[in-house]
Amino acid sequence: MMMKCLLILLISFSAFAQDGESESESTLVHKSLVELKNLKPEDFDKKIDDYRNSIEKYIEKKKRVCNGEFTTIILSDSEDQSKKQSKKLSVDEKKLCFNELKAIYKTYINHLFLVRSRFLKFLNKKRIEELASIRDETLKSIDSTFNRKR
Question: Distance of CA 92 to CAs 95, 97, 125, Å?
């Protein structure tokens, strides 16, 4: 009997830790979305893959949650063994879950667009500056060549 109580406590703490973990995972994704939106163009190449991988991984996991692909373990006093039960989400829960997923996905796509747009403008500006520098050097070279011939 004591072992059952200990097992129940252990599993309940484990379940609480998992729920807390999923909340912190959600918080981390929202934090990542904000960081992604504010990503500097200079850091784009170094950091974009990390943001993309973590956010897309979360989105895939959230899809699986919304589709009810996870199981629940139920402990019973009358039985010594645990039962695995697949708990399907209700229609309203599914709708809410997919609405949350849709909002996260749209935010991700919009932030990704903003960051890529800023990065392309940054690259374009950098290349125009390089082009202007090459033009200036070429003009100086032409001037020095023709000044020597006079």
Answer: 5, 8, 49
The verdict on residue 78 lying in a domain is: no
pLDDT tens by residue, 61-107: 999 989 888 755 555 555 555 555 556 778 898 899 999 999 999 99
11-45 residue pLDDT tens? 444 444 444 445 688 889 999 999 999 999 999 99
Residue 19 within any structural domain of the chain: no
Assigned domain for 14 exists: no
Radius of gyration of the chain (CA): 28
Phi and psi of 77, rounded to 5°? Answer: -70, -30
Of residues 76 and 144, which shows the higher confidence score?
144
The CB density around residue 56, as the number of other CB atoms within 10 Å, is: 12
The CA distance from 90 to 139, in Å, is: 73
Instruction: Tell me the C-alpha distance between 41 and 1, whole Å.
Output: 61
- What total of structural domains would you count in the chain? 1
Tell whether 123 is covered by a domain: yes
Domain range for 108 is 25-70+87-148
